[in-house]
Design a protein that fits this description.
Layout lengths: L5 E5 L3 H9 L2 H21 L4 E8 L7 H24 L2 E6 L6 H14 L5 E9 L1 H13 L7 H4 L13 E4 L18 E4 L9 H13 L10
Parallel strand pairs: 1-2, 1-5, 2-4, 3-4, 5-6
Helix pairs in contact: 1-2, 2-3, 3-4
The protein binds 3-methylbut-3-enyl trihydrogen diphosphate (IPE) (2 copies) and magnesium ion (MG).
Length: 226
């Protein structure tokens, strides 16, 4: 049985769900928050230590302004309303991605991180304005400026996921089979589960089925299947 330590999720399909049921992409983003709460609960139930959620990519800036503004308002409200609750549940919140937002948003993100810094039950990494190619380039440039040798061990210290073990598996909802610039280095050996359901339709039992399936997979890491 494989232990499950770190789960990464590409939460895709909010817009399609919103359009289909509410005639509004933004309504899908709001609905998607409910799934996030369920997945956090279930992760704790299964004693998972790290949960990394793809919330906004460096490419998502191409979307209409109205949608971007809605998404960031949703995030701000979520943090304002839920941070005490997350703190009480012993959850640590960390943001990965380029934190070059307004002063007000940066402050909010930093204060959420600071408040929950010593929490131990579950670490939630929220990938916000995150792009893996950008992360890799920045890490490479930083390491190049030091006296340290360019090798894997040194390199990972300059990634935004420093001190976070690689994900054991990745889930992507929304019936799309691609990585969309998410954790390209860190997912090198992850098991990948593509799910047809849209993110707002993804339920606790869907998550639990994947956890069970993952546990039974024979992981080789390049070795032979003995
Ligand atoms: C994923 O859902 C959430 C974000 C990218 C913020 P989408 O908004 O991509 O939903 P679809 O793929 O258009 O349905
Ligand atoms: C990936 O979803 C990003 C997030 C879930 C935040 P997208 O919907 O942006 O991915 P593409 O553009 O379809 O590949
Ligand atoms: Mg999408």
């Amino acid at each position: 049985m494989n232990p499950v330590n770190h789960v990464a999720i590409i939460m895709d399909g909010n817009g399609r769900w919103g359009e289909k049921y509410k005639n509004s992409r933004n309504a899908g983003h709001k609905e998607g928050l409910k799934t996030i709460e369920k997945i956090i609960k279930t992760s704790i139930k299964h004693n998972i230590k790290f949960l990394t959620l793809y919330a906004f990519s460096t490419e998502n800036w191409k979307r209409p302004k109205k949608e971007i503004t809605y998404l960031f308002n949703l995030l701000e409200n979520f943090l304002k309303n839920k941070i005490d609750d997350l703190y009480k549940q012993n959850i640590k919140v960390k943001f990965i991605g380029n934190k070059n937002f307004s002063n007000q948003l940066n402050k909010l993100l930093n204060s959420a991180e600071k408040k929950t810094l010593n929490n131990k039950k579950l670490q939630i990494n929220i990938a916000l304005n995150y792009g893996s190619k950008s992360e890799l380039l920045i890490a490479f440039k930083k390491l190049q400026k030091t006296k340290f040798k360019l090798n894997e061990k040194n390199f990972v210290k300059y990634l935004q996921t420093k001190n976070i073990p690689d994900p054991d598996f990745l889930i992507r909802t929304g019936n799309t089979h691609r990585l969309s610039n998410f954790l390209l280095w860190q997912l090198a050996y992850a098991e990948i589960f593509f799910v047809k359901k849209l993110w707002p339709e993804f339920k606790e039992k869907d998550y639990e089925k994947i956890i069970q399936k993952f546990k039974s997979i024979k992981r080789n890491f390049g070795n032979i299947n003995v």
